[in-house]
Amino acid sequence: MNAGDLVTSAVSNTFRSKTRTILTILAIFVGAFTLTITNGLGTGINRFIADTVSSIGAEDVMTVTKTPDAATGGLPSNDPVEYDPDAIGSGRPGPGGFGGTVTAMTTADLDTLEGIDGVLRVEAAKSVSPDFIQHDGGTRWVIGVGNLIPGQTAQLAAGTTPDLDADQLQIAIPVSFVEPLGFDSADDAIGQTVTIAISDAVRTQHTVEATIVGVAEETFVGGGASALPNDALTDALFSLQNTGVPLDQQDRFASASVWFDPDATADQVDDLASALADAGFTGTTVADQLGAFTSIIDAIVLVLNAFAIIALLAASFGIVNTLLMSVQERTREIGLMKAMGMGSGRVFTLFSLEAVFIGFLGSAIGAGIAMLVGGVVSRALANGLFADLPGLTLIAFDPVSIAVIILVVMGIAFLAGTLPAARAAKADPVESLRYE
């Protein structure tokens, strides 16, 4: 009996006792279904977090601020705070930005940062505070302005992320500003011109016109009410804002972006953060800001996967029982096969293939139905409970992960079938033929 015959025989023998086999497959189905859903849950949430990470910064960039004195400490408090003449508005929406003040950085601080070991490049984050934004002489709306850095991609409802290197003044407006500015939809806003007003040091108001190239979705880390300008627009607003400011006071920045080796290990990044701290700075990566989220999600998924594995282990006892009963019922058949020259190895392989086939059926059906159910549930939640989290696909499936799940279940089925297969392989042909 060649390999093809063994597979054919294993498949046909699987359903000799249809009821018993179907019940065993159902038990495997439950475990595979649960494992697929929990794995998809982790994949979907972590993808959303990864997209959010890319929308608030690049992975190889630290946002650096000067470490405040105890008297001007960073976190909001009801306690009185001593006036600091070097304080400056943070202008940092999202994690780590409290809308308060930080100690201003100067060009000398930027030079210090460039001299720290591990720093590849430094770029000041220019904080601007526009008065309003309007379209075509319509209503004026107060809006914040964020900062884009190379490698950062905004989560967009329409259009593209502003081109940092373009000479044209470009901006991505928040999706919540589409209707107030008079646009019918996010797509309708693309290519339109808006007017941004900003006041200088002597309260003279200036206006700048910029082209809308993108409409940014709100994210769960905040910053949804902030527009995203390209470098040309930021420079124009920063220059107008500093009109009338003494030259020695113009180069004052809320923070700076520090680039490091993208292939740096976690220990090397920690060493860089320590070096920054020793120099009087505080460095924060997007991993620091969102690492807790991914850790919690991974822990939850791990626990849920543990329950799924327990269900599969329970199902494996069903495989053992099914094949042991099959071996007992086919004792004479086993004896006849061995008497006709089939070796113990082929007998073992035959029953092992039956176990693997049962595992394949249970896992494939479980994974398939889990993908259907997960897709329906995910779409329903995206349009209902999680409508405020655009871009979230709660349950997402990775083909590689699905294949791994099926292979893992088949492996468990093979191990479960080892005992019955070994018993069949050891059967004495003479005694087997006498079995009643």
From TrEMBL:
The ABC3 transporter permease C-terminal domain sits at 306-429
Origin superkingdom: Bacteria
Tell me the compartments it is located in: Cell membrane
Pfam families with a match to the protein in the record:
FtsX (PF02687), MacB_PCD (PF12704)
Q: What are the coiled-coil residue ranges?
A: none
Q: Where are the transmembrane segments?
A: 21-42, 299-326, 347-374, 394-416
Instruction: Report whether Transmembrane shows up as a keyword of the record.
Output: yes
Write down the membrane topology: Multi-pass membrane protein
Q: Which UniProt keywords apply?
A: Cell membrane, Membrane, Transmembrane, Transmembrane helix
Q: Which GO terms describe its molecular function?
A: transmembrane transporter activity
Residues forming the MacB-like periplasmic core domain are 21-271
GO cellular component, as recorded: plasma membrane
Q: Which family does it belong to?
A: Belongs to the ABC-4 integral membrane protein family.
Would you tell me the protein name for this molecule? ABC transporter permease
- Species source reads Microbacterium ulmi
